[in-house]
Amino acid sequence: MQRSLADSRVKFRHLQCFLAVAQFGGVQRAAESLSITQPAVSKTVAELEAILGVKLFERGRHGAVTTREGQLFMPHASACVRALRQGVDLLARAEGAAAATLEIGVLPTVAAALIPPVLKLFAGQWPRVIVRLATGANPELLERLKAGAIEFAIGRLADPERMVGLSFEQLFSEPLIAVVRAGHPLATSSGLPAASLEDFPVVLPPLGTLIRQSAESLLSAWGVPPLSAYVEVLSVSTGRALTLENDAVWFVPLSAVEYELARGMLVRLPLPFAGTDEPVGLIRRSDTQPSPVGRALIDAVREVARQRMSAAADKSGGKPAPRRSRKAR
C-alpha cells in the first residue's frame, strides 16, 4: 500500500487504541481506560494493522505483546498523539474557554510532599489546567511513560535496561527512615536492640522496589535477624494507618511522612545506622519534547526541588548536593 494512502486512513482513534493496548498489555484494560467496549478496541487495532500491512501485537492467553513492528511504530504514534494534545492545549490557553489537560506520573511516597507546592506554583501561570496524577511503583511509571500515557514521571533511577529511551534528571535525594506513632514504646528507647522489632508489626516497601533494597541493607547493617512476619505496602495512606493504629514500625522514605513528623503524629526511631539516600528525579522520554504546559510544570517541579535542597542544606549546615542528569539510549 502506498504511504500517502495509508497516512490518510490512519485516524486518531487508531493511535489511541494501539497505544492503550501497548500500555496495558491487553484489550480488556485498554477498553476500560478508553471507556469503550473490548470488541471496539479489537476492531480498531485490526483496522490499523490492515492499513499498515503489519502485525502490531502477538495475542495470547496472557494478553497482547507488541511485535517488532509495533515497537518501531510506538514512539511515532505517541509523538503524533502528543503533538495533537499540545495544539489543543495551546488553543485552550489562548481562548481561555477550555482547560488544557496534563497527565504525569509520580511515586506515592513522593507525591504528598512534592505535588502540593508544585501545583500551587504552577497554577499561577496555568490556572485552567486539568492535571491527572498517576501514582504507582517505579516500573509501572516507566512503562506508562514509554507508552506515552504520561508526559513525564517523578521517580527513581532504575536499572539500565529499564531506562532505555529515557532520561533522568536528579531533583533531590532522601533517606529511608523508620517511624512509629507518638508515644510508641520504642519511641522513648535509646540504643534500640535489633531484636526489639520482633515485638511489633513491621511495614516494608514491596519486594523489587529500590527502597526495599535500601530497607534490607539498613536492617542487615543493624543486625536484625530475618523477620518472621511483616507487611509489604507501597500505599502511604495504608502505611500511615498501620503505624498509627497497629503500633507498626514503618520503613519509609522521609518525604512520605514529612507532614506527620512536623506535627508530632509520627516520630523517627533512633536507628544506629542511617538509611541510604536515594535519588528522586525527573524522568522523560528522550525522543519527545514536553508540551508548553508540560514545560511549565517541569519548571515548577525543578523550583520546588531546589527549595527543598536549599532547606535541607540550611538544616544540616552544608551545601546542597549537585543534581545529576542521565540520558539512556
Automatic annotation (TrEMBL):
The keyword Mitochondrion does not apply. GO terms for molecular function: DNA binding; DNA-binding transcription factor activity. Keywords: DNA-binding, Transcription, Transcription regulation. One of its GO terms (cellular component) is cytosol. Residues 10-67 form the HTH lysR-type domain. PROSITE patterns: HTH_LYSR. It comes from the Bacteria. Residues 307-329 are annotated as: Disordered. One of its GO terms (biological process) is positive regulation of DNA-templated transcription. Belongs to the LysR transcriptional regulatory family. This is Pca operon transcription factor PcaQ. It comes from Paraburkholderia lacunae.
